[in-house]
From TrEMBL:
This is Phosphoglycerol transferase. Keywords: Cell membrane, Membrane, Transferase, Transmembrane, Transmembrane helix. Residues 523-536 have a biased composition (Acidic residues). Residues 502-536 are annotated as: Disordered. It comes from Billgrantia gudaonensis. Gene3D superfamilies: Alkaline Phosphatase, subunit A. Its main location: membrane. GO terms for molecular function: transferase activity. The lineage of its organism: Bacteria, Pseudomonadati, Pseudomonadota, Gammaproteobacteria, Oceanospirillales.
Length: 536
């Protein structure tokens, strides 16, 4: 019990882990002073009420220790979308260790309440305190309260269907490089040295956006990709999913995303990622939204010269980028209309990253823990890829998007990262894109319309989904309302969730058609606080 208490305090307060031992020693001293377990036993023994609250706190501490910030949306989505192909072997082993130690904790607490009447008398109150203070239950209760108070359609009223008014006469190709967890915060040389230097070098010839924040439900890979390609946070399907015990067969079927628009304009689209496309519904998402070729670990590992050169998740980024070059060559040689390629890296994946062999040869030995080593590797490989493609003329008439998928989760540099406000990487390179820096309060949802306009598409109101083109003067939702308001509104949102998962409602639960199809802009309450743009 003392070791668990020490570990919990050290994890929650971001203290050095060795402090758990002095805390445990203090607990043992208290136990000796008050003779815990040696007092008068209770008249009747029963199972403690606190067992479930203690186990729930153990789950929260495991999640916080693994990811830094516990995201219930991510937890629910991954449970429904499928965990096949999960590469977090280290965390799986840690989960086993946590489970075994939790069993020991629960057994110890049960023994204490059975042998000390004082503990049995207070443990009912302790159970209430543990339940009330657990952030997991606090988050659920917040959402429940918000749903009761709010009308549940604030975000849905802000949503604008992406409408292309005019397509470019000479449509450019598109290359999107998602750099796993490589946030722009790493550009601070005082805290992180030169680990971001290669991306800064790319940025000297790019349009760099500063101030791209992270709102709720966009903080993991699938959520970040959907936010930046569909202009909406990824709200889990929840009870809208028809078969609760089966993985999702569709991912956000109710949204028109970047792939849908580009495929309708003749683009040939490919996705490449080193991890399994089964994990978290990645393959399903890209297949449902206009992509022709979806290449993940299953398809690419057999093509490696050394099939054993993989990590827990899948291919290293040097191998992935070799295949990316091959895929772009193939698409370019076909000369059958414009192409689009999306590639998702793995080097910066929390908690330690997966630096490729080429990086180890360049940077020296990797200690297996330092995330800054992996960040530097990711940045360098990205720059090498772009220089290689440019040298072969494969980036002619091509818009390149370099972006993080989301802010990183808990890593070795965590305390330094959370010192200041954090932001995502987002930059554009192309023949018609100016090389400059622009600061905007934005989110990953604004990437979607920005990319469309940077490609030369004219879109209605400079908007797509909940995003606003950062190439326009239109205010973003973050600029209009602020992150705190957006996150608060999201807790009570149900209409946008139903829009995203349209068609997945359980049978017999469909709503009657609305006799008035006219869209309501804002409720009087909304307009009093947050006036909506005129075009909505």
């Amino acid at each position: 019990m003392g070791l668990w208490l020490g570990h919990a305090i050290a994890s929650m307060a971001l203290l050095p882990i060795w402090l758990m031992f002095p805390i445990a020693a203090a607990w043992l001293w208290l136990g000796r002073q008050f003779r815990w377990g040696a007092a008068t036993p209770p008249a009747q023994r029963h199972w403690p009420w606190s067992l479930f609250p203690i186990a729930l706190w153990g789950l929260y501490i495991y999640l916080a220790d693994s990811f830094g910030e516990v995201d219930l949306g991510a937890l629910f989505f991954h449970l429904q979308a499928g965990m096949q192909g999960h590469g977090g072997v280290d965390r799986s082993l840690a989960a086993i260790g946590y489970t075994l130690s939790m069993v020991a904790l629960l057994a110890s607490f049960t023994w204490l309440t059975h042998h000390d009447g004082r503990w049995q008398r207070i443990e009912h109150f302790l159970a209430l305190v543990l339940l009330a203070s657990n952030p997991l239950l606090y988050g659920v209760s917040q959402r429940g309260a918000a749903i009761v108070i709010d009308d549940g359609a604030w975000f849905d009223r802000q949503y604008v269907e992406p409408v292309v008014l005019e397509a470019p006469s000479s449509p450019p190709n598109l290359l999107i490089l998602y750099l796993e967890s490589i946030e722009r915060t790493y550009a601070d040389r005082e805290r992180f040295g030169d680990v971001y230097a290669d991306l800064e070098a790319i940025g000297e010839e790019a349009l760099v956006f500063e101030g791209v924040k992270q709102i709720d439900n966009t903080g993991w890979t699938m959520a970040g990709m959907i936010a930046s390609q569909c202009g909406t946070p990824l709200m889990p399907a929840g009870l809208l999913h028809d078969s609760q015990l089966e993985p999702l067969e569709q991912v956000v079927p109710g949204a028109d995303c970047l792939g849908d628009i580009l495929s309708s304009h003749g683009y040939r689209l490919s996705y490449l990622g080193g991890a399994s496309t089964d994990f978290a519904g990645k393959g399903v998402f890209y297949e449902d939204h206009g992509f022709d070729r979806i290449l993940g670990r299953q398809q690419l590992q057999p093509r490696l010269e050394d099939p054993d050169y993989v990590n827990n998740w899948g291919l290293y980024d040097d191998s992935l980028y070799d295949f990316t070059v091959e895929e772009i060559r193939r698409l370019d040689d076909e000369a059958d209309g414009p192409w689009g390629v999306v590639a998702l890296s793995i080097s910066g994946h929390a908690p330690n990253g997966y630096p490729a062999q080429r990086c180890r040869e360049r940077q020296g030995e990797f200690d297996g823990r330092d995330i800054l080593y992996s960040v530097e590797c990711s940045a360098w490989l990205t720059r090498q890829l772009l220089e290689r493609l440019d040298g072969e003329g494969l980036l002619d008439n091509t818009l390149v998007v370099v972006t993080s998928d989301h802010l990183t989760m808990r890593v070795s540099a965590w305390e330094d990262l959370i010192e200041t406000e954090r932001e995502n990487t987002f930059m554009l390179l192309g023949p018609y894109v100016p090389a400059e820096r622009r600061e905007r309060d934005a989110s990953m949802m604004d990437v979607f319309p920005t990319v469309l306009e940077a490609m030369g598409f004219t879109i209605d109101w400079h908007r797509a989904g909940l995003g606003v083109s950062l190439l326009s003067d239109e205010p973003t939702l973050v600029e209009e309302h602020g992150l705190e308001t957006l996150n608060e509104r999201m807790r009570g949102e149900t209409a946008l969730q139903e829009r995203l998962w349209d068609g997945l409602a359980p049978k017999g639960a469909e709503k009657a058609p609305d006799p008035s199809p006219e869209q309501v802009v804002e409720t009087p309450e909304d307009m009093a606080d947050d006036p909506a743009p005129d075009m909505q």
